What we know:
The protein is mostly helical. The protein is 58% helix and 0% strand.
Amino acid sequence: MDHSGVFIGNTGTRADRAGETVEAVGEEIRRIAQEGPTQKELDEAKSYLKGSQMLALDTSSKLASALLQYQLDRLPIDYIEKRNAIIDAVTLDDAKNAARRLWGQGLITVVVGRAPQAAAQPAAATPPTAN
């Protein structure tokens, strides 16, 4: 993954609304790519990233896993201490430029699941037998 990027998201909805859900996500990605996030959205994202880190490191195994991932990502040994400052340094222009660069060409979307008509069919039930 050194030379590629993957953006992964997921959602859950009824099968008959899957197309509508995929379109709503696509519209939001296009909006962010064209206009960038608002200052409020950026501030909320920064707050989430900073606050969620401690929850992601609340056990020894999670901490060890995170440290391994930081090493695989070639991050510096003091990344944990500097992470919040790095997040705080991101400006609205930085976020807008990144969104344009990453999503400006659109996304390839893969949907996993059954077709709506297959999912809407009731499962075949076998009546209980009397003993």
